[in-house]
């Protein structure tokens, strides 16, 4: 019989190859094309697919697309807006989520924890387009929010007209469950006897929380931050529906470049810049926190 | 159990915040007024009748079902393979390959949609319901892999060995023992993939061409304020269906856990 | 323990090696297991005993060498057609099936009629003392019941060899002792070869006709329980099986079938060559089991040799007392065990005592 380790390797690869090849073709190949396009220039025009006949030799390698993304105000403003909105949404969701995760982990009976988590995650699985429709009717002029504040004699506010605010509110609602789960998981891993030890050593409940529970749950908080921040920066549909044409986010800009202007090189450069920015911020965040958490231990 | 009245009230407020908008759905879906605003003006089912009579909606629903059912089948099949390979076998490159398969979880859908669209344009391929499936399988596969990995991990490796030992071939062991034991996971993965796919808008919009999926159709209705109550009626149906499917999925997931005698450790994701 | 050496060979290992990548898990296994024998593979975790068992079952390929079952080489014979069945450590009771579906699982390809198969299942359940449990759900069984189901499921196929992978390790102490006896009875009843993997030396001694003690991928000693206990062939085996006192010694002379040693605290002793297993190049020590040393109470005298000592530690066990005693004014400490019987008081730490021992009980390791 053949070496069983070899046989295992072959079986594993054979089994994983359909999903792997699929992801390679449907994700990696298009991604490489995008990255390639973002460095593409075309003499006397803009690089796009499919290339016009005879254009192939006019292609050249360039950084000018990226130079434009970084120098022209429109790209900078929109990228900055995306980041600011993402930071606000992340702060809001994580701050709102922590007490909930803490409550479910520490104060809910073990048999009911799964039910609570299920309840918190359900809204996430309902049609986002429908939820957007709802937020438009809630925040719009003389909508439900205006009805509500009207009770207190406040004039209609028409929050929908403030694109960035409407986007932030809607996304904070949409990503709430995302933030609860990782914090909950981290809190579940906290050894309960450590808390008793803390109190045994003369800490109050509050100081035990600050000195034991909170630091131990920081990995969950970090995961929550990333899990909210990353997709929010790339949000397309919320900005489109809640922000209208006045407050686009970076993903909307990608669409404009790609489909409206048919400038595939520029669209790719915007997309790559956005992803690179998010990746750099995420990595910096993880590194900074690693140092912070490392020094605590 | 300790009690914390402050935290408990906050938790309830939080659930109200989460569910508030969804609870408004049926309220205005049955409200006899075109403008979605308080006070309510009486009960009606006319928005539902309008919805039922909308031919374009039915076409969109059919397109979406085509897309979502295919997505659920393909994603689950691929997810079973990847999860089984990851749990059962040791092979070089596993972290990288599994990382790539899970990567769409953190990629903005607009990037996935645009990059696939560029390639389709480049290849001169048409955009239609079929190409939407390509994108949807990509974004649902990570969920399927995660669910199926948990399902395979909960099974004792000796089960299949025991079946082999009792005279079954590797294939019949898988069919008689492993498959029934991961079936709850398969159902759960199928339902989750279906739910994600039918609700998804961006990929359906950019890769769908002239085949309008349900979410794209709903989006189109936003331009007409008079259609809002009908959209809410439709939303009521969709949300009810999602919650039903999820409850079934959760039921099967838990039954799967209970069946192999494991400990429940939370929900999806 | 009535094992006769003239029984035919059931399993034979010829220079079996197994590598996991660079890791050498089995390092040249040789030996035979007889038909109808209750055989144990005993050793600490990681010694290769489970790997060896799994090469018999066919779950592990071997890197080189030969495994023969009933005279046939098992190379290229997959697990599902080997004449062996296994009771898994976790029992591997299929959780989605009832007890009778589990027990009858291996009969799926059996050409017999449904009624005959049902009868076979009932008989198998009766044999393991689970008559009437057939309709129960598998997950509703206790640990002991699961094990019985696993036994019935394996035995219903009438294998030539039954493989048991630490089958008792998940049970509590009482249940374990009970099942040890049941397994011995069952083996006598069905008369087939049982091969048990265990890390529990007591379990192996109680149950087996013969035991292979394994360390680091090799069989250190293959013998019947009494030989293993009384005449271990190395310090390592002696230490793994039961408790043994090791006393430093010097070899004075070796001639023909006699070895004379000077053991610290015991003095000069002449040993038979049978008490000295082949030399391994280690520092010489003599070994003595605690029960071969006896405390002499005032008025008693030794039949054999005696040595003075001082009690350093007393460990009371109810039926027994263990004493740690310094021998004859040296720093050599031995443990000895005394049965607690009326008229024999438990002595205090610091008491000066006389210790009786017999040269025949000594084993020399060198």
Automatic annotation (TrEMBL), chain A:
Domain ABC transmembrane type-1 intervals: 79-287
Domain of life: Bacteria
Keyword Transcription regulation applies: no
Chief localisation class: membrane
Entry's transmembrane regions: 20-42, 83-108, 114-134, 141-159, 165-187, 208-233, 265-288
Alphabetically ordered keywords of this record: Cell membrane, Membrane, Transmembrane, Transmembrane helix, Transport
One Pfam short name: BPD_transp_1
Protein's UniProt keywords contain Glycoprotein: no
Segments forming a coiled coil: none
Gene Ontology biological-process annotations: transmembrane transport
Record-stated family: Belongs to the binding-protein-dependent transport system permease family. CysTW subfamily.
Name of the protein described by the UniProt record: ABC transporter permease
UniProtKB/TrEMBL annotation, chain B:
Domain of life of the source: Bacteria
Keyword Transmembrane helix on entry: yes
Cellular location(s): Cell membrane
Membrane topology: Multi-pass membrane protein
Residue intervals of the ABC transmembrane type-1 domain: 61-249
Keyword Transport belongs to the record: yes
Alphabetical UniProt keywords: Cell membrane, Membrane, Transmembrane, Transmembrane helix, Transport
Residue spans crossing the bilayer: 12-30, 67-87, 99-123, 129-152, 173-198, 230-249
Matching CDD domains: TM_PBP2
Cited PROSITE patterns: ABC_TM1 (PS50928)
InterPro entries (UniProt xref): Bact_Polyamine_Transport, MetI-like, MetI-like_sf
Pfam families per the UniProt record, alphabetical: BPD_transp_1
GO biological process entries: transmembrane transport
A GO term from the CC aspect: plasma membrane
Family recorded in the similarity comment: Belongs to the binding-protein-dependent transport system permease family. CysTW subfamily.
Database matches in PANTHER family: PUTRESCINE TRANSPORT SYSTEM PERMEASE PROTEIN POTI
UniProt name for this protein: Spermidine/putrescine ABC transporter
Source organism per UniProt: Fuscovulum blasticum DSM 2131
TrEMBL record, chain C:
EC nos: 7.6.2.11
Catalytic activity, as annotated: ATP + H2O + polyamine-[polyamine-binding protein]Side 1 = ADP + phosphate + polyamineSide 2 + [polyamine-binding protein]Side 1
UniProt keywords, alphabetically: ATP-binding, Cell membrane, Membrane, Nucleotide-binding, Translocase, Transport
SUPFAM superfamilies: MOP-like, P-loop containing nucleoside triphosphate hydrolases
InterPro entries cross-referenced by the UniProt entry: AAA+_ATPase, ABC_SmlMolc_Importer, ABC_transporter-like_ATP-bd, ABC_transporter-like_CS, Mo/tungstate-bd_C_term_dom, P-loop_NTPase, PotA-like, Transp-assoc_OB_typ2
GO biological process: one example: putrescine transport
Protein family membership: Belongs to the ABC transporter superfamily. Spermidine/putrescine importer (TC 3.A.1.11.1) family.
Assembly information from the UniProt record: The complex is composed of two ATP-binding proteins (PotA), two transmembrane proteins (PotB and PotC) and a solute-binding protein (PotD).
Function: Part of the ABC transporter complex PotABCD involved in spermidine/putrescine import. Responsible for energy coupling to the transport system.
NCBIfam families tied to this protein: potA
Protein's recorded name: Spermidine/putrescine import ATP-binding protein PotA
Native species: Fuscovulum blasticum DSM 2131
Source lineage: Bacteria, Pseudomonadati, Pseudomonadota, Alphaproteobacteria, Rhodobacterales
Recorded name of the encoding gene: potA
